[in-house]
From TrEMBL:
Organism of derivation: Marinimicrococcus flavescens
Gene name of the record: rpsQ
Molecular function via GO: rRNA binding; structural constituent of ribosome
Entry function: One of the primary rRNA binding proteins, it binds specifically to the 5'-end of 16S ribosomal RNA.
Alphabetized InterPro entries for the sequence: NA-bd_OB-fold, Ribosomal_uS17, Ribosomal_uS17_bact/chlr, Ribosomal_uS17_CS
Protein name according to UniProt: Small ribosomal subunit protein uS17
Summary of subunit composition and partner proteins: Part of the 30S ribosomal subunit.
GO annotation, cellular component aspect: cytosolic small ribosomal subunit
Any GO BP: translation
Keywords: Ribonucleoprotein, Ribosomal protein, RNA-binding, rRNA-binding
Similarity comment: family membership: Belongs to the universal ribosomal protein uS17 family.
Length: 86
């Protein structure tokens, strides 16, 4: 079975080797038929403490690492490269 991959924004990086990622999804309200946003927070493992608040990251499902942490930050080539070289 494939592992799920979600994309979200880091909202906290205060814990050691852990970031809190808020993932937003859009859904239609069942009665009013208006598109609304729902969000959920996930604790994700960040081995090198490189992600900071406000970063857009992708997280992937993994084995349980603690009671609340069963996701890890996916390291892409774009995430490892510096944003600008000026």
């Amino acid at each position: 079975m494939p592992r799920r991959v979600l994309q979200g924004t880091v909202v906290s990086d205060k814990a050691d080797k852990t970031v809190v990622v808020r993932v937003e999804r859009r859904m239609m309200h069942p009665l009013y038929k208006k598109i609304i946003r729902r969000s959920k927070k996930y604790m994700a493992h960040d081995e090198s403490n490189q992600f900071k608040v406000g970063d857009r990251v992708r997280i992937v499902e993994c084995r349980p690492l603690s009671r609340r942490k069963s996701w890890e930050v996916l390291l892409d080539d774009a995430a490892q490269a510096p944003m600008s070289e000026a």
